[in-house]
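Suppose a colleague, Dr. K., hands you the sequence of a protein chain of 184 amino acids and asks what its three-dimensional shape might be. Before reaching for any lab equipment, you can write down a predicted structure in token form. Begin with the sequence itself:
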Amino acid sequence: MSGTKPLEPGANPLTPTLSPEIGGKGDRGARALFPHEIGGKAGLGGLRPLVFVAILPWLLAPTSSLAADPAPPPSPLRASIICESPPTPGRFRCDVELRTAAGRFSWADTQVVKVDDFILPLRGRLGPMDAATHEPDLYRWSLGFVAKARGTGEVTLRVRAVVCQGTLCDPVETEIRGQVVVGR
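The predicted structure, expressed as tokens, is then:
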């Protein structure tokens, strides 16, 4: 671009400067000159060093900041399941225990998520009022199942709870699996 002036010593190259030149007929005053216009270079030639300086800190950033989020904190729930091993097909029971060391329970339930083909749940969900033991840091349920045949399989449950610490409450859940052996 012709008619531009070089950048004065000590001036910030990122700040536009005003040109006192009048651009021609109909011009109402001074116009701003941007860094790429200073020094007569057209295009981005004058910006290349600036772009490099702007990108350099990002390139030198530690790779840990670019990595995926860290693993979530461990669940405050400790859940376990123990299933009876009936000698013949028929009814059997699985006992579920839910504990927390991080506060108290406000609410909790357990749901049957998956069972093997030879097992039928008698109920799909047990809520807080169905718990045999209901304490601030402990819930216990007994779930009934029916085994249609002999075999070895698995029962998968989802245990959900609302855990409170003071006035702050958080919903949490975990999945547990229990082994079932019928007729062995």
